[in-house]
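Supplementary Note 3. Input sequence used for the single-chain structure prediction.
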Amino acid sequence: MKLRLVTPERVLLEEEIKSATIPTEAGEITVLPNHVTIVSNLTPGVVEVTYISGSVEDVAVSSGFVQVSDQGDVVILTETAETGEELDLNVIEEAKAKAEAVMKEKANTNDESFAHAAAMLEREIARYKAVNRYKQRKGIRTSSRH
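The predicted structure, written as C-alpha cells, is reproduced below.
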C-alpha cells in the first residue's frame, strides 16, 4: 500500500508502507493493507508510519483530511506536516508556552480568539510528541526545560 502525505508547500512522503496510524475525528485509526475505503477529517496529532523495511517514522500533522482508496492507498492532506527529525524541542516548548499563555489570556474573550489559541496549542502538542518519539527511537536524550 502507498502513503502520500501532502501539505500546501510540499509532498512530505510518497512511499510504500506496511501501516499507518492516523489521528482522525473519530479517533485514532490504523490502516493496514486491504483496509476499508474511508474519508475522514484529520485532527492534529502524530501519524505513525511503518515502512516496508520495518522502520517507523512519526510525523506531526495539523488538521486536514485522510482518504483510503479501494486500492488501499492512503492520501493525507494537511495544513502542516513535520517529521520528528525536522523538529527542534526547544522551539516547540517555547511555542507551546506561548500558546498556553494566549489561551489563558483569551479565556474570557471571544470564541474565535480562544479557538485559534487552542488550535495553536494542539499543533504544538503534536509536534512535541513527534520529536520526543523520534528522539526515543534514536536513543537521543531530550534536554527539556520542564
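Residues 24 and 42 are 4 Å apart (CA to CA). Strands lie at 2-6, 11-24, 27-31, 38-42, 45-51, 56-61, 64-68, 74-78, 81-83.
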